[in-house]
Each structure stands twice: as C-alpha cells, then as structure tokens.
Amino acid sequence: MKKWANIEHRLVPCLFLAALLLVWQAVVESGLIARYILPSPQDVVIALVEILPVLKGHIMVTLQEALAGFGIAILLAIVLAVVMDNVPLVKKALYPLIIISQTVPIIALAPLFGMWFGYYMLPKIIVVVLVCFFPIVISLLHGLGSADKDMLNLLKSMGASRLQVFRLVKFPASMVNFFSGLRIAATYSIMGAVIGEWLGGTAGLGLYMLRAKHSYALDRVFATILVIVLFSMAVFQVISLMQYLLMPWQRKMQNDK
Amino acid sequence: MSSYRKNREKLVVKDLRKSFDDLLVVDGVSLKLGEHEFVSLIGPSGSGKSTIFNIIAGLLSPDDGKVIIEGEDYTGRTGRVSYMYQKDLLLPWKKVIDNVCLPLVISGRSWPEARRQVQKYFPLFGLEGFEDRYPFQLSGGMRQRAALMRTYMFSSDIILLDEPFGGLDAITKSKMQDWLLEVLNKLQASILFITHDIEEAIFLSDRIYVLSGRPASVKDEVIIDLPKPRTKDLITSREFNAIKRYILDIL
Ligand SMILES: Nc1ncnc2c1ncn2[C@@H]1O[C@H](COP(=O)(O)OP(=O)(O)OP(=O)(O)O)[C@@H](O)[C@H]1O
Ligand SMILES: [Mg+2]
Predict the structure, then answer these.
(1) Ligand 1 atom index nearest CA of B47
(2) Is the ipTM reported for this complex over the cut 0.85?
(3) Distance, in angstroms, between B105 CA and closest chain A CA?
(4) A154 vs B85: CB contact, 8 Å cut-off?
C-alpha cells in the first residue's frame, strides 16, 4: 500500500506534465499559435540539441557564477547567523536591516553592479549572493533559536561549554530549517546568475538567452530556459542528497512512519 | 534507623526562595540528603518541585537561600550533580550510545574512548543490542532507561531524578522501580527523587519530604523505616499502608 502511494506520488505529476506537453505540441502543430510566437516542445528539444555545443561554454560560466555565489552566501549566512544567535545586540541591530534589504529590488540595483564591479563574473556572483543569502540566514537563525531550552539546560547542567552546547545541540537542532533555507536558495542560485548576466557581460546563459531573443529565435530561448530549469533542479537535488546523507536520524524517522 | 542519621550530610538546601515574575514558587524550602541516602520529594503538580531541582543543579539562581554540597557553597553553579529531567531529553540526532556518552564527551573524552567506556553498562540498563538505534526507535521505558544511563554516566555521587517514571504505564513502571533498586544497590550514590506517586516514594525511599502546593514549602518529613532490600510484597504490608495513609492525610 505504502509503496503504491509512493509510486502514485511520483507518477501523477509526471503524467500531468506529459499531458500538458502533448496539448502544447498539438496546439502548435495545428497552427492555432504561430511557431515564431510559441515553438512546440519538439522544436525546443531539436533547438537544444542543435545549440548544445555552443551552449556548453555558457553553461559553465553560469554554473561557476551560481555555485560561487551560492557557496559564498552559505558561508556568510552561517557566520552571520551564528554571530547574531550568540550576541543579542547584533541580532537586534541587524535583523530588521536584513528584512528591509529584501524589499530592495535587486533587478533595479544590479545595473549599478556593472558600474562598480566591472562586467566580468564578480557582479553576477554578487547578485547570486544577495538572492541566496536571505533564505539561508533567516532559516538558520530560526533553526538555532528553535533548540529545546531544556536540552540546552541539560547540557549546561553537565558543565558543557558554549561551544559544546552549540555543536551538540544548537547546530543539529537547526539542520532541518537550515536545509529548507538551502533548498530555496539553491533554486534561486542559477536564476540569480542569469539575471546578473542580463544586465551586461560577455558570456553565460543569460547573455545567450538575450542574444537568441534579439534574433527572434524563440525555440532557442525556450531551450535555454529548459537548461536553466534542469540545472536548478540538479542543484536542488544535490542539496536534498546532502541532507539525506548528513541527517540519517531524520531519514530513519520518515521511513518508520 | 534511617541511613540519614548514620551518615554525614552530602547535600544541604537552606531556605530556598524563588519567584518567577510575581509568582512565588518556592517558599523557604530546606532539605538534607545524607550519604547513600534515597530521599523523595512528593507534592502536587505545579508546586515547584522541578524548580527546586533546577536550583540545586545550578541552572537557576534562587532569590534567597543556599545550596551546599559537602560543606561547599554551590548556589548557582552547574556541573556538580547528575540531573535527570522530567522529560528524557535524548538528542534525536544521536544514536543511543552517543547520547549516553554525552557526559563523558563533555568532560573531555574522545567519542571512541567514551563509547568503549559506556559499552559495558548496556546490559545493566537493559539496553543491550540497542546501542546503534536512534532514540525515536525505542519504547518509552527504554528511553527512560537510556536517560537514566546517561545521568549515571555523569558519575556524580549525587543524583537528582525528576519523575523518571512519570509517563510510564503501571506495569512498566513497577518493573523499572525493581530495576532501579537493583541498579542503585551497585551505585553507592545519594539520590533525590521527585514523584507524584506515593507508593513509589515509600517503596524506594529512606525518607520523604511532603511538599505543599504552590508555593512549595516542606509540610512534613517522613522517615521510612521499612527493611531493605525491598520487594513488591511490601506494598501490601500493614506498615506500608499505615505510612501511605499518613502521607495521604498530610497532602
Ligand atoms: N522558567 C519559568 N518561568 C516562569 N514560570 C515558571 C518557570 N518555570 C516554572 N514556572 C512556574 O513555576 C511553577 C512551578 O513549576 P515546576 O515545574 O517547578 O512545578 P513541578 O512541581 O515540577 O510540577 P510537576 O509536578 O507538574 O512537574 C509553575 O506554576 C510554573 O508555571
Ligand atoms: Mg516538574
């Protein structure tokens, strides 16, 4: 029964997606919508195969920007969350600022990054850091604060140092939250790099997409989007895999249910 | 003769007073615990028993009063007594063996060394074969025993147990009490024990402090002069029931 529920869980969205693609294909084939306005799924796949040799270089650039930005965001977020969790004054001072910073539209700000940081990878990495940082720091802070007070006291009663309390209780207790923040940030990372590339540069998927759009090659635009989606999902899956490996207790808990 | 009179005092609590905001929770409680003595605190729910333990363990500072251990002032200082909370508080992300190792690791031993050291106690605590399970894979009774084992590994000569069998069914509880007495015989520790259960208190204790409702104060002190080692037959005996009647009347 459980097994079937599991299969059903995966099968239903796949079938739905397949049905959607079929309808899309049929609509375009029948001529209801002109091909230069909306390419069919088949056109997109053909275009993807065609442009893949050229795209490879751009993919590498975007991936590098996204992963570098994501990595820096993770480090920054961990450092900041740990400091904020340990020094209440810092938390009081920074927490509202971090929230407000999220209301600043990055798209509006990003063109300035070109002026400030040039047109190579740095401004793109900064965009990625800015979009990824927020979900990680907020979820980690929340996680660190969610540790059971009695558990913390128990460790103190055993004479544990602050560092020991952090390592043994606070950090593990925050892992579930931390990973949900990481997964959200992971999906943002590639997109952040692409947005950065739209605003100027010499390589990357975002730049390629712009060029394809300017030459009205919508099949190539869609093919690039497909690549972005696939890579975003891949980063997401890597994070989920890491969680699976790093949190064996949770995995077993879910299996037992 | 209770061992209280025979032996010197291990722990003395003097005139503890504690309020949370405007709520007076502990009102002038004084207690004594002799060497190798088993003393229970019994009192209504919410009266302030756990608060007294938190103060003795040094996690809370009293507004007034002192905690003296072997003649030294330990008020507000942690790390001296073994303390088992009302909840089992096993870390869900650590295997049973690592949970039990915790006090050893905190005091500076490496994980492998600590694991080697605790291994031999698993049969005594009835957890043999469950070393590598996670806490959620254990039954309630096993979790309590694991928590007790962790408390024991702190290896202090003073142990505070806050309703260790509170959440258990009558059958498991009765087994755990027999087992606790057996373990305690080997331990040679001095124990303060909180319970709601009068029979449990009489069965296990050398002495019982009966506390009032909130704010907690000591209403009476009852010396249990029943012979040891004790078995469950005792519970139906006349002396046992006389003591039970007496405590019920106070409460
Ligand atoms: N940290 C705290 N802040 C504020 N109030 C508290 C705190 N800890 C306990 N109290 C209050 O103090 C009172 C006594 O609590 P305590 O946990 O000591 O009772 P208890 O005798 O152990 O009860 P039980 O038998 O139900 O475990 C309760 O009314 C509780 O709400
Ligand atoms: Mg309590």
Answers:
(1) 21
(2) no
(3) 9
(4) yes
